[in-house]
Specification:
heterodimer, A: 231 residues, alpha/beta, Rossmann fold, B: 10 helices, globular
């Protein structure tokens, strides 16, 4: 059974159609890229998968169920923005995640905080923007989740930080889980992907495995993306 | 999960309310000393100092009440409607648990604030002879008013407390309903929250007045005839609780629907 599935999924905001008949099926154990330019509907899809928005039509299923409190227990979500409470200390953040998620590995998160030089007593508001982003990623990747939904994890960060982020994802995700990475920065991320969905103006315009793209089309995902989304 | 939400909500709010209560108590001790100075000292400088400390205490009382209300509003706005909403609404908890945790914590702080203000007022006015006089006056009042004994003091206190708790919860829910509607729009979320606060209040006041007018005949037998004043007081208090509960329930339903079906985080 797919861990993440969309069937003819629609989402409209008034007259604006953000998603139009989206069909996606992702099996456990796959790392999938949701690739599209800004405003293509990636974040809307991520929000729908987390129950932060309600579909206008069709259905979205997580492990066979519509998003609810039970599916949220198996989904680990990294929003596009940093949203960890500023007043909390690093240690309080770990307490918070441990209290609500039974699959949270506090020891793993604490080690990663240590490697980044984040003391547990340090308040989030004392951290730099980049450190906050990394801290949030560490919290998300320290869960043994069934599905990781990472919305623009490498958007707006420097190349060194991109390497840290991708290393953290690859060395910490549950191998039996699926990982969905939404991004428009392809070159850094394509090396970790198994398959890709190209999304444009709310529609899925291409779905293929990364190997097939390289073998059959003879080009990298990045090159194909530039061709498909040429202005 | 509600227990865990409450734990973290208290953790987030106690760091503000706790120090505030300490300041209030400290200022009430200063105010008490000031009153003594004002009463006894002829020195102008000390009189001015005493008056300033007394004024500071008055401001602290007002400030504490304002902060308690502002904190209730701000926690809902930042923790659920702001960026933190991305974390809170993706926790494995229900919308009901999120809203109920906010209501419980706000209500506890309102009651605690009332208690802190009362305690600080007692500290400010404290003199042994005042306490003795107050006890004498209350005893005398009970002795000369047979009706007060029949009021069943404990029952009235419980009824007033129930009314206070439900009123606090309903008061918070009015703000939550307005903010959940205002933040469902794409733009001008704060402005629209304020607009809907007044719209909801106007609608509820109008509807409440109409219901009270229409139900006048329904409840008339409760207060007429020879049931006496005391049972009427009890009935009036329970009717007030029912009225506040109905208002609160309406606000809760509006908040729940907006957060479940029309959540629109930025």
């Amino acid at each position: 059974m797919p861990i993440f599935e969309c069937r003819d999924l629609d989402k409209s905001f008034g007259q604006v159609r953000a998603l139009d008949g989206v069909n996606i099926s992702i099996e456990p154990g796959r790392i999938v890229g949701l690739l599209g330019p800004n405003g293509s509907g990636k974040t809307t899809l991520m929000k729908l998968a987390n129950g932060l928005l309600t579909p206008s039509g069709g259905e979205l299923l997580i492990n066979g169920s519509a998003p609810d409190r039970n599916t949220r227990a198996i989904v680990s979500y990294l929003p596009e923005r940093t949203c960890i409470p500023l007043w909390m200390s690093a240690g309080q953040l770990l307490d918070f995640y441990r209290d609500f998620y039974t699959d949270f590995r506090r020891d793993a998160a604490e080690k990663m905080f240590g490697r980044l030089g984040i003391p547990l007593k340090q308040k989030v508001k004392q951290m730099s923007k980049g450190t906050r982003e990394k801290a949030q990623l560490i919290l998300v990747m320290s869960r043994r989740a069934g599905l990781y939904l990472l919305d623009e994890p490498i958007g707006g960060v420097d190349p060194a930080a991109r390497d840290f982020i991708l290393d953290t994802v690859i060395s910490n995700y549950n191998p039996e889980a699926a990982v969905v990475i939404s991004t428009h920065i392809i070159s850094d991320v394509e090396k970790v992907l198994d398959e890709v969905y190209f999304i444009n103006r709310g529609e899925i315009v291409l779905h293929d495995s990364v190997d097939a793209i390289r073998e059959e089309k003879g080009m990298s995902v990045d090159a194909l993306f530039r061709e498909v989304f040429k202005c | 999960m509600l227990g865990k939400l409450l734990k973290h909500e208290f953790r987030a709010t106690a760091r503000i309310m706790g120090p505030l209560y300490l300041v209030l108590i400290a200022l009430s001790i200063c105010a008490n000393l000031s009153i003594r100075i004002l009463d006894s000292s002829p020195a102008a400088a000390l009189t001015v100092l005493g008056a300033i400390l007394l004024a500071a205490f008055g401001l602290a009382v007002t400030g504490t009440v304002i902060v308690a209300v502002a904190l209730m509003v701000n926690r809902f706005r930042t923790n659920l409607m702001g960026d933190e909403g991305y974390i809170m609404f993706t926790l494995p908890v229900s919308v009901d648990q999120l809203v109920v945790s906010k209501i419980i914590v706000s209500t506890v702080w309102f009651i605690a604030t009332a208690a802190a203000v009362l305690v600080s007022a007692l500290i400010t006015a404290f003199r042994i002879e005042y306490v003795e006089k107050a006890v004498e006056m209350i005893s005398e009042l009970i002795r000369i008013t047979p009706g007060l004994q029949a009021l069943k003091g404990a029952a009235v206190i419980v009824e007033v407390l129930v009314l206070a708790v439900t009123a606090c919860a309903s008061f918070s829910l009015l703000f939550y309903a307005a903010m959940s509607i205002g933040h469902s729009f794409s733009n001008h979320k704060k402005l629209l929250s304020v607009v809907f606060f007044f719209v909801i209040q106007f609608v509820m006041q109008t509807a409440g007045s109409l219901v009270i007018l229409a139900s006048g005949t329904l409840f008339k037998p409760w207060f007429s005839g020879d049931i006496g004043i005391i049972p009427s007081v009890h009935r009036a208090l329970w009717l007030a609780v029912l009225y506040v509960l109905i208002r609160g329930a309406i606000y809760y339903i509006v908040t729940r629907i907006m957060l479940k079906k029309h959540l629109n985080l930025e």
